[in-house]
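Structure ticket #2291
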Amino acid sequence: MRVMMTTLAVTTSLCASVALAKQPLSEVKIVNDGLLAVGIADEIRKNCPSISARMVKAFFYINELEDHAKELGYSEEEIDDYVSDKSEKAKMRARGEAYLKEQGVVESNPDTYCALGRAEIKKSSRIGALLRAK
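Resolution: structure written out below.
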């Protein structure tokens, strides 16, 4: 009986440890995709003179993403480490550049950023919600 109780306790402990293990924050789709949207919106507003950012909306959205990460059990330090990690920034930049390219943006042509920004605003996407046509 004692062996069975010990086995049960160890099994329960292992299951709890597995359940509590967190995936890397870069694999949390809501957070990662949200940060990507913010980055893309920022690139559009910096490169298109007829579109500006909804800065307050972006600020609140970033706070929502941070709150979501905290609800999942990530600490402030883990979140800060993720958003300041150079390799994660490089991955995010590559994803953003790929998206812009897929959407027909040409880096040297501001009109292509404007066209994408207007399209995102029109379809009320997450990116478009962070932008405003002037």
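Closing remark: The first helix runs from residue 2 to 20.
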